[in-house]
Amino acid sequence: MVSATREIAAGPGQIFELIADPAQQPRWDGNDNLAEAAAGQRVRRVGDVFTMTLTRGAVRENHVVEFEEGRRIAWMPAEPGQEPPGHLWRWELEPADASRTRVTHTYDWTQLTDEKRFGRARATTAGKLWASLDRLAALVEGADRATAVASAVEEG
After folding, report:
1. 153 φ, ψ to 5°?
2. What is the pTM of this model?
3. Alpha helices, DSSP H, located in the chain
């Protein structure tokens, strides 16, 4: 299991929207593994399943196994129509103060049963999780700066 934590200068709701909407996930994926997901799959509860196309063209069904709006989301990927082989992606968001959120991203493959996936699982390092956190931060912090600049221009 590997994880990485970072504070991001944005509220948890704004960050969570990018994580819970599969169509947004390729924008911040630090593994460079996600190609696209159809719009309209926003996760709302445990038991939801969203579909993602990987950069290699394979499709994955992601089974949501943990969900608390604005705070926690976790899913287990599987090949279409199959049971998940046991690895899990988790995001946990905790407000640090009024304008900052502590975000923890975890990849847990301790229950992975498919030995063909062990090499890729081992290659998913904390550095790759950090890359996702950094890209996520750049998206929301850039949006905050753009909004602030636009407001200043309107008031100016």
Report:
1. -65, -45
2. 0.86
3. 12-20, 25-28, 118-123, 126-155
